Amino acid sequence: MEHIELFFKSIFIDNMVFATFLGMCSYLAVSKKVSTAVGLGAAVIFVMAITVPLNWLLDQYILQEGALSWLGEEYAAYDLSFLSFIMFIATIATMVQLVEIIVEKFAPELYNSLGIFLPLIAVNCAILGGSLFMQSREIASLDLAFNYGVSSGIGFFLAILTIAAIREKIRYSNIPAPLRGLGITFIITGLMAIGFMSFGGMLTGGDEPETKEETSRVIPSKNNTIEVSKEEASKLANNEKEIIE
Amino acid sequence: MGLLSKKDLKLITDPLADNNPITIQVLGICSALAITAELKASIVMSIAVLFVMGLGNLTISLMRNIIPPKIRIIVQLIVVATLVIIVDLVLKAFAYELSKTLSVFVGLIITNCIIMGRFEAFALANGPIRSFIDGVGNALGYAVILIIVGFFRELLGSGTLLGFKVLGDPIEKTGVYAFGYENNGFMLLAPMALITVGIIIWVQRSRNTSLIEDN
């Protein structure tokens, strides 16, 4: 159940592009045609499915406070979490290179369709953002981390696919000249983000105990959405713990 | 600005308007939008980017002849990551509340495309001093947009600027609230950042028609 919940939550409610603005650069740059958008989206899913669980392992067994205790008692006090940026980005950059080499060797067709997008991905904010959110939301287990990676990737895929389709059609519309190209894309993305906010009510149905928090996120408050969703994540984690107990 | 030659001065003034990293080069949008609900956060983010970009461009430019081209992306990422860790630790030490607000977006300066873009386009081909100036210029261009967006979102969204109630008190109905003005809470939500930037682009391009795209 928590898998399904996390899956839909990361695709629709905490959508990478519309809720947290991650991966906007490639989202805007590569969304002129549907075919290229699909290529980039697929590559993002692929890379996130690998890097998020990998960074979860790094975080759990090396970086967190007390994570090194498997090495022995004297290492238990170390807290290497200040290194997480550098470790995460190094993992992502090397994994992207590695994936590129492997795909090129074993699946040349896939390489031809993903190929040019893979190097772009190393500096895609969505990938690093996925790992950092995984860390700050305290995703509880490896399979949940994998789930989070895949579903956030799908969220990005969905976003870039829809905007590419809209941009292909909007070429035939009569837009005020100064808004053409970038300007209108920004505004459409904003409108789509408003649409995606309506998914915020999705998790409130049924007898979920967190109904109150979900409705409070709709009311504009001074807290930005990211903070609220972080609270939710920690509450979710607490709920899980209770269920396990 | 007597210290700088005309050519160097152009490196600073160009990114402020006609070659703005956000509205023209479409770089660095990721971290630009999420944190602009408050003016203070925008300013701190701008300073962080200014620091990382100036020093990063300088470092890369100093190393440009010894970096093997094949692994340059990793080298660049490491340089940026190191600088960002410094920023993050400084923020955590001296402005803990603010670092909570900025949350993961400080870390995301690493993948801010402006930084990588300027490394690739400028620092790898130019001397250290010019690269430093270019980095500062582009960071200022980024800061201008961030501060404009942050200004309007905070003013219209919560009626404050940097936390000061400039429009009066919404509860006691003083200032403009006495005339029935209400805060537009919608401005604080994520989508309005996008629309605000869209409008900035609109205004900029209608003033300077040479920037208009064909389609």
Automatic annotation (TrEMBL), chain A:
Q: Which Pfam families match?
A: Rnf-Nqr
Single GO term (MF): oxidoreductase activity, acting on NAD(P)H, quinone or similar compound as acceptor
This entry's Enzyme Commission designation comes to 7.2.1.1
Give the EC class as a word: translocase
BP-aspect Gene Ontology terms: respiratory electron transport chain; sodium ion transport
Q: TM segments?
A: 6-30, 37-58, 78-103, 110-133, 145-166, 178-199
Per UniProt, subcellular location reads as: Cell membrane; Endomembrane system
Write the record's keywords in alphabetical order, separated by commas: Cell inner membrane, Cell membrane, Ion transport, Membrane, NAD, Sodium, Sodium transport, Translocase, Transmembrane, Transmembrane helix, Transport, Ubiquinone
**What cellular component terms from Gene Ontology apply here?**
endomembrane system; Gram-negative-bacterium-type cell wall; plasma membrane
**Primary location group:** membrane
Per the record, membrane topology reads:
Multi-pass membrane protein
Substrates-to-products reaction catalysed = a ubiquinone + n Na(+)(in) + NADH + H(+) = a ubiquinol + n Na(+)(out) + NAD(+)
User: NCBIfam families this protein is in?
Assistant: nqrE (TIGR01940)
What does this chain do?
NQR complex catalyzes the reduction of ubiquinone-1 to ubiquinol by two successive reactions, coupled with the transport of Na(+) ions from the cytoplasm to the periplasm. NqrA to NqrE are probably involved in the second step, the conversion of ubisemiquinone to ubiquinol.
Q: Which family does it belong to?
A: Belongs to the NqrDE/RnfAE family.
Subunit structure, briefly?
Composed of six subunits; NqrA, NqrB, NqrC, NqrD, NqrE and NqrF.
Can you say what this protein is called?
Answer: Na(+)-translocating NADH-quinone reductase subunit E
Q: Which species expresses this protein natively?
A: Gramella jeungdoensis
Gene that produces this protein:
nqrE
Automatic annotation (TrEMBL), chain B:
User: What's in the keyword line of the UniProt record?
Assistant: Cell inner membrane, Cell membrane, Ion transport, Membrane, NAD, Sodium, Sodium transport, Translocase, Transmembrane, Transmembrane helix, Transport, Ubiquinone
Q: Where, per UniProt, does this protein localize?
A: Cell membrane; Endomembrane system
Catalytic activity from the UniProt record: a ubiquinone + n Na(+)(in) + NADH + H(+) = a ubiquinol + n Na(+)(out) + NAD(+)
What general EC class does the enzyme of this chain belong to? Answer: translocase
| Primary role | NQR complex catalyzes the reduction of ubiquinone-1 to ubiquinol by two successive reactions, coupled with the transport of Na(+) ions from the cytoplasm to the periplasm. NqrA to NqrE are probably involved in the second step, the conversion of ubisemiquinone to ubiquinol.
Entry similarity comment: Belongs to the NqrDE/RnfAE family.
Highest taxon listed in the record's lineage: Bacteria
**Bilayer disposition of the protein:** Multi-pass membrane protein
Q: Membrane spanning segments where?
A: 43-62, 74-95, 101-119, 131-152, 185-203
Protein name as catalogued: Na(+)-translocating NADH-quinone reductase subunit D
Task: Please provide the Gene Ontology terms (biological process) for this protein.
Answer: sodium ion transport
Q: Which Pfam families match?
A: Rnf-Nqr
- Determine if NAD is one of this entry's keywords: yes
Q: How does it assemble?
A: Composed of six subunits; NqrA, NqrB, NqrC, NqrD, NqrE and NqrF.
InterPro entries attached to this UniProt entry: NqrD, NqrDE/RnfAE
User: Might you give the EC number(s) for this enzyme?
Assistant: 7.2.1.1
Listed GO MF terms: oxidoreductase activity, acting on NAD(P)H, quinone or similar compound as acceptor
* Gene Ontology CC entries for this record: endomembrane system; plasma membrane
Chief localization class? membrane
Q: Does the keyword DNA-binding apply?
A: no
